[in-house]
Amino acid sequence: NITEGSPPYQHLGEGTQAILHYNTAPGDGGILSSSYESIYSSSLQTTCNVTSPCRVVNCPFENFHPSYYSDCINVGDFRLLIETPSEELPVGDSPDNEIFLNFNFEAHSVTSSINGKKFVFPPVPILTQPEDFEQQALKCDLSANCNPSDIHCWCTHVVEVGYNKVVQLVVSAIGTSDHQHPFHLHGHHFHVAKVGYPSYSNSTYSILEHNSDIYCADSTCHHSCVNTHCTQPSWANEVDSVMTIDGKTPRKDTAIIPAGGYLVVRIISNNPGAWLLHCHILIHATDGMAMILNVAPDHQNPPPKGFPKCGNFKFSTSTGYQESCSFVLIITLLHFFMAFLLPI
């Protein structure tokens, strides 16, 4: 956060600390949370200056203002120490599928959304009850116009891809609000092929315009729509689709989409399942900035025989069960929330 004026800006007190504990360090490897504050207060604080600039890893923007004496090392600059085997690389002149996803605060009531669609959990699980899901879920119409938004844009957002395809995701954070979003995909590790940043002010380094590689069809819309929204992203011009991916290209399951910019990531869709894709800021995800990447439905394993289903629990005074979706939905939601607490 920054205050008004010119850089360097006054720090408003927000910050994040991390304690790194190495396997070679003495002790049993455990650090009590009650010790965090004393460790932080007794640690040597680094001073960034012109002769010894700091190096900041994983910046959510391209560069710091020179007055901070800090150099950014962005996700696009990362190189793997252990190379990815060639058979696991999503390479090729062009992907089998290209999907554009814009993370922003749009949709109805300017809420969290992807392409203007606010994610709503379905009444039944797509993975274990696919037939019921097709009949009961309010699935998003991927071709629907969500600018202006209506109640049909509050829906279960599902994009389906085939088995063992090279899938290219162009994920952006463009629109009315200039916010970066940590984008997380379950079930796969993606390769970061390209990072696109907005244009910044030479004096303040604040965002002037979003990256011109992305075209938002909303910019020319009419009839009660908002021209600054981006619910229909695409490439603005002919973009080189041959992305440079090799064995040392960074491989992640979470990466920060720069505010006003985008990431191009690729996967090989070789892990069948209905995988959640969402902003990793909890309030954004639960508010609707999420969707399902349904990978190879025809290759997904059926649930085990006798696996509980929504609607098959009968009320019993002896067991306390009742006809409801509670058990399956509790398990589904527990997995969703644990995704924010444990590495996957």
Structure description:
With 344 residues, this protein is mostly beta strands. It is 10% helix and 25% strand. It contains 4 helices and 19 strands. It has helices spanning 36-42, 130-136, 282-287, 326-338; strands at 54-57, 70-73, 97-106, 111-114, 118-119, 154-155, 158-161, 166-172, 181-185, 190-196, 199-200, 207-209, 214-216, 233-235, 251-252, 254-257, 262-268, 273-279, 290-295. The chain has a 6-stranded mixed sheet. Strands 7-19-18-9-16 form a 5-stranded mixed sheet. The mean pLDDT is 85.
In short:
By secondary structure, this protein is mainly β.
Largest sheet: 6 strands, mixed
Helix content: under 10%
Low-confidence stretches: none
Distance between the termini: 30 Å
Taken in chain order, the helices and strands follow as HEEEEEHEEEEEEEEEEEEEHEH
Q: Strand fraction band?
A: 25-35%
Q: Assign an overall shape.
A: globular
The average pLDDT is 85
Q: Helix tally?
A: 4
Please state how the strands of the largest beta sheet are arranged side by side. 4-3-8-17-10-15
- Decide which structural class fits the backbone: mainly beta
Number of strands: 19
Task: Evaluate the radius of gyration.
Answer: 23 Å
Structure characteristics:
six-stranded mixed sheet, five-stranded mixed sheet, 4 helices, 19 strands, 25% strand
